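Quick start: read one record
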Amino acid sequence: MSDFESQAAMDAADDETSVGTAVAMDDDYTKPRGWRHGATWTYLIMLLASAVALLVSFILSADTLKMARNPGQKLNCDVNAVLSCSTVAESWQAEIVKFAGLSFPNAFFGIAAESVFVTIAVIGLSKVAVPRWFALCTWLGGLAALAYSYWLTTQSLFVINAMCPWCLVLMFSTTVQFMALSHATVAVQDMPSGHAGLRKYYRLNFDLMVDVVWIVALIVVILVKDGPMLFA
């Protein structure tokens, strides 16, 4: 091989290396980095939100048992006509699952579901690698929990015309839980793979603005619907 051919081969190899390095740098650049996008922060927020939701589910379950033992008894969270746990608990929406002639309160399922989310958050904090199908099922489960919570909230606002304070806490904690879970799914689990748009969304911290607007929008809807009565 002549000196010219040798030099050409070396230049070609250098070009390939440069392209590979550029692609690698681009991949690293698009991935969200920093403490806010790591497993510790995202799963810690999820753990706190899930723990609150689990605690509230236990409280609601206890209230349900109290009402079953003493029908017609008012609960401690019965503040007025709008903020009334017992009104919500006595509606059919509070027990939509029926089997063998028995009704199962929603709060019982909340205990089961939130226990799973707490466990998943602990696994995430431990930085244990999980299969992609597991991460996907976790996110879908979080989405289902959020949708169910919002359905119950809309029923309380527009059908039952009464709100349970504990149910509101559960709704907001489920919302934060889903926000943190979605963040972890993209930033930590890298799903869906190769989706530069979602990576950029979190890398530029757009999610912070969206999350704040999301929470404020929920508060505004509640205040517009029942604001004057909440403080009556």
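The beta strands are 97-99, 102-104.
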